[in-house]
Fold each of these.
Amino acid sequence: MLTELRIRQLAVIDEVALTLAPGFNVLTGETGAGKSIIVEALGLLIGERASSDLVRAGAERATVEGVFDVSDRSALREALDARGIDCEGTLVLRREVSAAAGGRARAWINGTPVTAGALAAIGRVLINVHGQHEAQTLLAPEAQRDILDAFGDASAARDAVRVAHQALAEVESAWAALAAREAEARRRADWLAHVAGEIEAAAPRADEETPLEDEARRLTHAEELQALVTEVTDALDGEEGALRRLGPLQRALAGLQRIDPATARLQELYDAAWYALEEVAREAHAYAEGVEHDPARLEAVERRRDLLYRLKQKHGGTLEAVVEAGRAARAELDLLDTAGLDRRTLETRRTAAATALTAAAAALSSKRRAAAAALARAVTARLPDLGMPDGRFLVDLPAREEVGPEGAEQVEFQVALNLGHEARPLARVASGGELARVMLALQVILARLDDVPTLIFDEVDAGIGGRTGLMVGDAMRDVATHHQVFAITHLPQIAARGHHHIVVAKGAKGGVTTTDVAVVTDEARVSEVARMLGGDAESATSREHARELLASAAVAPTRDRPTAQRARKRG
């Protein structure tokens, strides 16, 4: 429940703190006093667009804070805890708008900075705003469908239809993709066979290019390599080679060490050099045995390299791409052999998915038919109390050409507001005021299904008056038995029905126009209702009339209307 709304430097408001109470709160005031700014402030708390134009002239920023009692909403507190926000029972939503160009906005929840999206996600769980334009949502087919499904407790059934429809759509998509691939494979069969055959015959390996290049280089320079390695072996162990010439040094080193043991290091170095040269000689001889002049092998290697080059030119530029092209061509050809089996598998899946969708849609249709009859009776019963004594409300369920993700039927609200007239779609017969009252009738019936604790009604009483105004006030008072209701109204009949009356007044502060709010009771409330009646607020007649209105609200019991749950049972 919203317990307090604090507004600073917003439009014509300097600073106000608006205290709300449980039940039916009403906000009244002269035209232009700033009632719409209150709604703007609430909109900021539920994520609506912020603009620097909203900041009061001369101020650096505007701030809106909403204080909520959420002690009875454990699920919300758990959601906040998951976001790292502490909440033990009181929740403060805050939005700040800068006066700088662009109107940069910031948001907090219980002092923790959050995004505007996070603020909106929490704010819309706590506040639902219904304005004159909100009644227009009744004209949208999807809104009518949502209302009926909420009333009929059909959300789970509708989710089942959506899931079943998605499953069937996925099978249909797989079927279409298979057919397209098969058709493409048939069209390209000769080319695919050529590609697969050519690559498979060559049997390329992604890692064979470098070894081939090395071998080709050795074969091309075989004679030169042979000459060079012979030069190395002759220099090391030929008749005049280094090893033969270094052999006599062993005797001299041994003599040195015998006389002076300190020369042992020379022997170690000599031995290391000797063994290293011997290893070079062995490796050179081994290499020489592997070098051969083989023109036939060189020709074979060059042919292989040319083949691989041509394949790379045709199939992607690398051997990896060539290998993949061959694999893909063979897989596409194999599709022609396996398509029949794949089609039979998909046909089985398609039949099962279609059957599941038909069953889910039938279950949803059953719920909707029952809910349509019950909702029609419940709303029709409300219309006389809202100034439409001969009104009838109907819910039509025309069948769709095929089952869609939302079910097998459309949902269309119809009304006949005058005796002897046929029911027609709501958009064709209802005025703005009538739409607002139909919306209010639905809101009363759906009140117990709506989990949002605070409902804001922004001048939904436009276009009505007199006895109808009293009826609308009674309807809002009924909604307030299940929700906190906050209504911005210009009708004294509705204002008199409120449990808590707040007045907005425009004045001047420091030479600047400003808006203030005050809770009125007793004689101050009588004066406000008398002003709203259009006469002299201080005249005895106007004040007596105001007292009568307030007295009738005080003694009129809140009628126990048929709730949505009862209506469904009676249906």
Note: Confidence is low (pLDDT under 50) at residues 559-571.
Amino acid sequence: MEEIKNETKEQENVPVQMLEKPEETNKTEEKKAPEKTENNEKNTELVTKEEIEKEQPQKKRKTGLIFLIIAIVLIVIIGILSTIFAVINLGNTKIMKGIMIGDIDVSNMTKEEAKQTLEEIYSEKAKNEIYLRYGENETAITYEALEVQYQIENAVNEAYEIGRQGNIFIDNIEILKTWFKGKNIDLPVTIDTEMVSQISQNINNSLEGAVIQPSYYIENDKLIVTSGKTGKQVDEKELLKQIYTILEENNETSQSIEVPTVVVEPQEIDIEKIHEEVYKKVQDAYYTQNPFTIYPESDGIDFDVENAKTILAEVKEEYTIPLVITKPTKTVKDIGTEAFPDRLGTCSTNYNAGNKNRTTNLILAAQKINGTVLLPGEEFSYNKTVGERTISAGFKEAAVYSNGQVVDGLGGGICQISSTLYDAVIFANLEVTERRNHQFVTSYLPAGKDATVVWGSQDFKFKNTRKYPIRIEATVSGGVATITIWGVKEDVEYDISIETKKIATIAYTTQYIQDSSLPVGKEVVQQAGSNGRKVEAYKVVKLNGQVVSTTLLSKDTYNAMKRIVRVGTKPQ
């Protein structure tokens, strides 16, 4: 109690001012306190923003990490599934599901099964026909004759490789695509384009209004130049394109094509080139003994080129240019019979001597080539030697092939002489440089052994490839046309024959023509049809009875000759 009292007394003794100070102090502290609170709030706000800014990258890193983990997991899962999928297909030896070749399903087949399936399907198409129509005429060709070849093995290999490229992911994607979308692999096809060229030329030779190219020949002391004529010819590229389209579609057993043609201008007459071909120096005939060589005579032939250009400046169908002919003083006949002692090759064909006009044409053609001498390396041209077949030259109307029919034409029959000469040339072991088969199989020689000629478009040429000169002997008498090649035998002489092989048959078609002069129901066969064919001709060379070589001479296509039947329409 005393202590309490003492404290009270002490307080009582404290001055008033001292007693008030604590209150002021408290007041001051009270005034300052709010300031401390505002600063504290500001500090709190700053700390919160900094913390947020620090937390955001951390959240982003966490989110990215989560996505990365998910991606890794997905990749691992996909990798595992792809590996399992690949392992499953690793032992698969069959073509994947959904794959087709040329619209034929080959899914789940082995390569061998797919190949066999396709070969069975496409082999049945060998007899499919394509009809080529031009004007009122047509010719049929089969896939077999065209030598249609489908590249089955390549297509099967391509199909089999789908899903087997070596990259698991790419392979799996490719397999899945074929499963759901499918895949059709094209089946490439090839044909004998040379046959199409032959057919085109055959049509050109009988096409009405066909283009005629300029040509020339020598007649006595004159150079006869014929100008060309604008006309049609088969558009071979377009025809080939249409044939390929049919083969690729491959839907029907028979289809037809209207043969496309184009109008073309003939080539210009190149008189300077003609001069180079015609010009010859005069040469007397002579021969040497060691070694034995014959050098026959040669007329000197020349003409004035500038004068010829003046003549050609006028628009005409035929031009006559005078030649300067210089005759040799000594001929082969003056040398003696020893000039051409050996028979190198000969051929004979039969003809109907009762057909006077045709016989006349044969005799004229034979006379023009008879006695022709070719030096080693020289080339023979049938058209240039025989000349244009005209009435003024003595040629007559006789049977010729035209537009799929046998009709009369000027110079008919002279192809028998060119064909007979062709065989004799082969037997004499000479080189043929230009030759084409007829449109139809001839009656005087088997298919593959003939040689057609058409003035202005088709020639027969050969070259003397022997060491010594040769001489052509041609005779027409008693129903037999014979051509013999004479010369000098070389150290080694071969026995030569021509062998032919039929590749395909082309069936003929029938054309019916209404005839008001015949009673209803009566039919008259105007032209008997005949099948066409495709053949290969081989030159077989033998020595002492043993075959030395067999060489392909030609692959020839002969059109079928249509059968024409006249059907009566006259009421009875």
Note: The CA atoms of residues 155 and 252 lie 22 Å apart.
Amino acid sequence: MFETPLFLLAAAAGALIPLLLHLLRSKKATPLSFPTIRFLMMAQRAASRRLRMENWLLWLLRTLIMLLIGVAFATPVLRVQGIQFLGRAPRDVAIVIDDSYSMGYQAGRETIWEQAIAIAVELLDGLGENDRFTLVVARQEPHTMVAEPIMDKEEGRAIIQSLSLGYGTSRLGPAIEAAYDSVRAEPGRRMRELHILTDNQALPWEGVAERGGEQEDIWQALQEDSATSVYVSLLGVRAPENITPIDMALTPAVMRAGGGGQLRVAVGHNGAPRETTVSLYINDEERARRSVMTGTPQARRIDFALPGLPGGVHPARVEVPGDNLPVDDAFHFLIRVRDELPVLVVGTETDTFFLRTALRAAGAGDTMTTLAVDELPGHALAPYAVVFLCNALPLSGQTIEAVERYVQRGGLLVLFPGLRAAPEDYQAWRSLPGSPEAIEDLPRARQRRPLAWAQRGHPVLRGLDDEVVAPVIAKQRHLTWQDWATDSVPLILSGEEQPFLVERPYGRGRVLMFSVSADRSWSNFPLTPFYLPLVAQVVEYGAGMEAGPPFLWARRAIPLDDILPDAEADTRLIGPDGIPVPVRSIREEGQVVLTVDNMTRPGIYSVDGVDGRQPVAAVNMPREESNLTPIEPATIQERLALENLYFADSREELQTVLEAHRVGRTYDEFLLWVLALLVPVEFIYANRLARARGRPGGTLPVDLSGHVQRGQAAGAKQGATA
């Protein structure tokens, strides 16, 4: 192939010049007066044969020089792959576009996402008449936009330009597999290109090229495929900077009306440490602001004191100043404030005396309901934040089912054992942390046991390890277990291994089970200084579970029951942009489950109620995507282990790489270097021939009889003329 083929005509014309010069060259004969002409003619024929051979080599050398000059100006191009006699081989081009929200980073006048879209369109515009393409969008799971190779560039351009940047993370490995799998099975002599358009973030490359099963076959085929070239466009900046709130925690999870609380925020960053501010907004009103230096331990623990708020659900957010990635500058959450925290206590007056006293001291006395064991069946449990069962077993199967249904829907069940229940009375429960084995009476020597916090930082235990140092209780008896559920977690240990308080998640709720009773008949636990704060935090813990988490991580599908336990099929959920969010119903295990689709946009979601629009959920993007730590091309090369792998960091560099590997390599410079060597060779050779010919004339050796001496051809040759 030639970029300027017209110069080939000039090369052909130039090659004729030496030939014409050699053919039209005038040969002047110098007459010689010598009586024996036939001897002179013999010497002339011998010299002419040598001269013709020398002129033939010189003509070839000069013709080659003229051809090289013309061919060099024609700019010859040799394709690296797919060489054909006429034209180039058709291509199948697979394009992978990274759809993680870090692609929204502002790099100059454009975001990285806008650069990727522009490059994808340019790739389509550069396709030939017989070229085809496929398109895959890399998200947490690959989304194939064009599965089979097609030639309709207009359709492809419309699909690409209709894409919008999402709010999630991405994995490039599965997307690359899907893209290559869409073009590798095509028969025929077609070249293949795989383009990966992403930023230079390291996160999406984690786990890429993982081996196993079908994936191993795909990667092995790609590594062995010499007809496929892989182009990676790392469009991000080399040293990105970003500051974002990455997490938060509310204490308590549900506040009391008029009471305060505490908010703890963690801030992450990329780039050099610098001073920034973190602002707290409640109901779109700024309430507090903190200055912090990024990259320090203080940035991981910024505390705000929450003011007293009226009952209800209050939308809130923490926010940092705007930067090049504005989508993660705010972290949304809900502050739930209740006028009261209703609690249900089931048991006799003796069994519940100390518990009721502690609840009154914790401020829950006005909202506490006490029931005898025989009053529990048929009682509505949904309004209560916590249900305490104090020596209330055994219960009927129907009552057990009602209590466990309450837990599944987000309630907190706290169970204290007692002498009314034998170990077999616990077997009908499916939600308990373990199966009790026996009630063990302890000898005096083993009654005093220190307590140890097994899960420091748990909401039930938060602050207790600071208030009480190595608490010790005296136990006369305790409940022992023979086995545990796999998801059970001990919160407090008595001694080294004996569980004292165990938690198990069940549905959306939790079950807390003590190894001692709620009164003094089993231990002095109700008289210890941590009994009251522990009961208070259990109530707050239950209220937080009943109300739901302060925020949700964005994902494609979320059960509506996680947001609105009492939602119905006609519930209308409104997104942060004011547009209704689709709610669909699916059937799982014979039950209808309502699911919210595409709950990915960060912000506050609400429903239309009697008093107007009410916030019901706060959604945030997964913050691992905000970590913009870059990746080096050498690391990608090591992970992919591909031979035909090329990198570019801009639109212009990608075009240069494509010209070198798609169009081919130019050899004009190489030909000019050859010319630089041939020209002096021709000059030296031509001058040497000119000197060897000498002048016309000479002598022939003749003996006394007038005969020319044979064997003296050298003299004859010197006397010959061309």
Note: Residues 80-87, 712-722 have pLDDT under 50 and may be disordered.
Amino acid sequence: MGKSVDTREGESKTGKSAKSAATQVTAEDLAKKQREISVAEFFEKNRHLLGFDNPRKALLTAIKEAVDNSLDACEEAKILPEISVEIIEMSENRYRIIVEDNGPGIVKEQIPKIFAKLLYGSKFHRLRQSRGQQGIGISAAVMFSQLTTGRPTKILSKTGPNKQAHYMELHLNTQNNSPEIMTDEVRDWDKDRGTRIEMDLEGSYMKGNQSVDEYIRQTAIVNPHATFIYTNPKAEQFIYARATDALPKEPLEIKPHPYGLELGILVKLLKTTESRTLQSFLVNDLSRVGSGTAKEICDTALLDPKRRPGEISMQEAEKLIAAIKNTKIMAPTTDCLSPIGDELLEKSLKKEINAEFYVTITRPIFVYRGNPFQVEVGLAYGGTQPRDGAVSLLRFANRVPLLYQQGACAFTKSVVTTNWKAYGLSQSNGALPVGPLTIIIHMVSVWVPFTSESKEALAHYPEIIKEIKLALQEAGRKLQTYVHKKHRVQNQLERANLFERYIPEVADSLSRLTGDNKLVIEQKLKEMINKEDIKAQIFEMESLKGEGKDDTSDDSEEDADESLQEIEE
């Protein structure tokens, strides 16, 4: 019996083995399924990486990418930007967005590639401050429009007063990441030059802190040289006039700094350089390296300065990296950055935020991993801002507002870990301070460490957080002087008003005790609490507000009278 059981078990195993062999997949079968993935196909399935993960955010992202392109184009052409943004509600959850600028326009051959080809642009390989970098933004918006509505994106562009305008309707072929031109024609356009983009997409319009309305307002604050004309889906138009007629300083391109090089990047540069010797490579292809410094690096690495760069092996490149770290090299040049500046940032703040006290700080340029960056901070205190609840935090990178992922951002961590109680505000542990305050933080850099391709938050690099906190503390000390002065004035005024309330009773008692006239005593008591001293202190507060300005003393005295009245109320 045991024998027959063994035979059946053997037959069963043999059957399973044969069946397994029949269904086995070979390496050749697997190879047939492999194919190259287009970058457009990748982002088509992973649109959330680019900021198109919900309808409200998708509408904002599409407009943001178009506005960023317009601002960059105008600034590079040295044109004061005038940008029109219009949102038209076509049906429920479907909108048409139209963004038009007065920039230099785009030549006909470049229109399809710029708007309907991912990873196409002129900024990726440049080390200089710029809003866009990867060449993904506007073409990703075109792709999203196509995916959600099926309609082509319409582009109209003109490069000069005596030129004809080119009109195109485009689709993006996601299989091979290439543009498909649906319409190509010449049209009359009454503008001298500029570009207009029109696209339909599924989205959601809502007001609030993460709305298109707020994005346009914040963009106007951080770009004081630009004028924005914004029309929302309710046909309400808002005009944000420019605060200055001066264009920002043009940032210049710099070469890679040796301290920022990683091994793989160095090897790539060595293989592609046109320099004939290692020493000339270090001088010509890198930033801030002179011939003497280059020779010192070669000597430390025990490498011949006359070696051909392409012949350097991986092990020798490692020695070169180590030698660079042990050599004193000047910091990178700083003309690759274009900050807003204290005065202009304060002027822009006053234009858009109704407050009673403003302070702005621009920190010196700091270098991290060979990349220069600079932090600017602005505080707007009091006025019509809500007095209850957390402060309003506005975050910017290279003149672009960051409206999402506030909790994950290095800017937020810097504010939360700063002791605001020392500056006259209340604050709970691990939370934003509470009070009538708007905090603006702006970082400019050739390399902004965003946490994702959607560019919504900055990574938590300790060196960056330290610089932001230093700027916040410097601005906070100036705020502290004003807030403490205001509290002292309020306390003095409350005491004076309390004593003034009892003057008639005190005068009556003194009159009965001394026999003097009650009215005379009452007048003398009022003179004792004359509010001129309090007014003088308010005058000092007003001078703190206008520190560095050309306000006349008469104007400041009028401001002091008004402030005294406000405090009494």
Note: The chain has 18 helices and 14 strands.
